[in-house]
Specification:
By secondary structure, this protein is mostly beta strands. 7% of the residues lie in helices and 34% in strands. The chain has a 5-stranded antiparallel β-sheet with strand order 7-12-11-10-9, with no helix packed on it. It has a 4-stranded antiparallel β-sheet with strand order 8-35-34-33, with no helix packed on it. It starts with a strand and ends with a strand.
Length: 507
């Protein structure tokens, strides 16, 4: 290839030859900072997926081939996977292999001569089973191949279903002193603080602010944190559960030390919940057990189970509550009475496991992943299901009682009105964080002005309730931040936790 340049002032024409390698070489020098980014934007929650037209039959055939043989053909015709030890392409044997199999097979025979075998012809390498000799009418066949042994049958305990739960609950006090000078335990609400934890909360005059810095780290769990719950109303205690099958309670003020550990589950704890007075709390675990604990002394009061795994658990919010709800892995929501220990109601209208339960509007209506149900009446009063909806993994009420915020798996937080006409508020949607693949907590500050949520990238994010704009984002962990809770009394204190087992306190 040659390039001809314009004549210069002297009238000479310059011709230069450019080789192909020079034309195909990568551009050199620094990148243009003003050039727009050529990377494609995400069109699915986890990245970019290119659409391709492919028939259901072709997709299923290649999927089965990949599952069974480890390779398949992509839509462009390229072989994907490990095909080094296979002799088939597109599910068909090679011609040479087919000829070799035909040569090794016996002949079908001739029907006219009485030796016709047809499709039942054997392969030559197959050994024919020896025919049993015909016995006389008075003879009995004795099978000599089976040698009797002296092994005794296994005990029924070895083969029967074994319950994974344990009835040996233990507790351990870790604090510096179990009783103070007036013989009071940590259940006593402290009065020597700058804030009054006993007075009535005036939500009209409250103003919350976004936290700025970390002030403390609670460290005792050695696995991922699964739930964080402040003590009802006062918030002077913090309850945490973890994948290490333990529940711990912490002192939020004074020394901020670990007070007590509750042990009794054999697998990861999925959720915890205080009763309205805080004297008792519930814990649910993957060992399919739900246990009622005494907060003050650590005694296990009762055990509940349906044989399925509980994913979430909530007490009835009335002051004298004796019942609770649990979302189970068998797509049901069950209601138990803590006094009798029996299941009093069952709600079986879900199409998937229940992962979020929240009381809305009154004590007699509760919400479970966009299925409104009346307590004690197993009939849905509102059912929302749309093809564009993603799974809602966490639910939290707004302090006004008029709305609920839901953590949607498509990297956004959606809002639903919890009035009589339960419907989505399409004007409110909070975006800017990543939550796909994780069940990340979502909540609203006590004054209702700030929405907060964790992030799979290790951030804790804050949005303005009115404008839906993100106010602030704090790097809280190296891994996903799955648990977070706003202090019920403090104006700017938030607790967060992730998969590393550390609980961080922010102000």
């Amino acid at each position: 290839m040659s390039i001809t340049l314009r004549p210069d002032d002297s009238g000479a024409v310059t011709t230069r030859h450019v080789v192909t390698e020079t034309l195909r070489a990568e551009p050199q020098g620094p990148t243009n900072p003003f050039k727009p980014n050529d990377l494609k934007r995400k069109n699915v929650p986890t990245g970019y997926a290119e659409e391709t037209a492919i028939s259901d039959y072709t997709f299923k055939a290649n999927h089965r081939t990949f599952e069974s043989r480890g390779y398949a053909l992509d839509p462009s015709g390229t072989l994907v996977g490990d095909a080094s030890n296979t002799y088939e392409v597109q599910g068909r044997p090679s011609k040479a292999d087919s000829e070799a199999l035909k040569r090794k097979r016996q002949k079908k025979g001739d029907p006219s001569k009485g030796d016709y075998i047809g499709p039942w012809a054997r392969y030559k390498e197959e050994e024919e089973e020896p025919l049993l000799e015909e016995l006389a009418s008075d003879e009995e066949y004795i099978e000599s191949a089976i040698v009797p042994t002296d092994r005794t049958a296994m005990a029924k305990v070895s083969t029967a279903y074994q319950d994974e739960s344990t009835n040996t609950e233990t507790t351990e006090f870790h604090g510096s002193s179990e009783f103070d000078y007036q013989n009071r335990t940590y259940m006593h609400i402290p009065q020597d603080l700058d804030i009054d934890l006993r007075s009535e909360i005036d939500y009209a005059d409250r103003k919350n602010y976004v936290p700025k810095k970390q002030i403390h780290t609670f460290k005792s769990h050695n696995k991922a944190i699964t739930s964080l719950r402040f003590f009802p109303d006062s918030g002077h205690l913090l309850l945490s559960s973890s994948a290490d099958a333990k529940v711990k309670i912490w002192d939020v003020y004074h020394d901020r030390e670990l007070l007590r550990t509750y042990s009794g589950h054999t697998k990861s704890v999925t959720d915890t919940c205080f009763n309205p007075s805080g004297t008792q709390f519930l814990s649910a675990s993957y060992d399919r057990q739900m246990k009622l604990w005494d907060t003050e002394y650590g005694k296990c009061i009762a055990r509940f189970t349906t044989g399925k795994t509980p994913h979430c658990i909530r007490f009835h919010p009335s002051p004298d509550s004796n019942s609770f709800l649990a979302g189970m892995s068998d797509k049901k929501i069950v209601q138990f009475d803590t006094r009798t220990g029996e299941m009093t109601q069952e709600y079986d209208h879900h199409l998937g496991p229940g992962v979020g339960i929240q009381q809305v509007s009154s004590y007699h209506v509760f919400k479970s992943n966009l299925l409104n149900l009346k307590l004690d009446i197993p009939v849905p009063i509102k059912y929302i299901a749309e093809p564009y909806m993603y799974s809602l993994v966490r639910v939290s009420p707004h302090p006004s009682g008029k709305s609920v915020v839901c953590q949607s798996s498509d990297n956004q937080i959606v809002v639903y009105q919890s009035s009589d006409r339960f419907r989505q508020n399409r004007k409110k949607s909070f975006r800017g964080h990543n939550n796909a693949g994780y069940a990340i907590d979502v909540g609203v500050s006590s004054d209702g002005s700030i929405v907060y949520s964790g992030d799979s990238g290790g951030y804790i994010c804050f949005w303005d309730w009115k404008t839906c704009k993100m106010w602030h984002k704090i790097k809280a962990s190296d891994g996903p931040v799955v648990c977070s809770a706003w202090h019920p009394r403090e104006s700017s204190k938030v607790v967060t936790a992730g998969l590393d087992g550390a609980i961080k306190y922010w102000d």
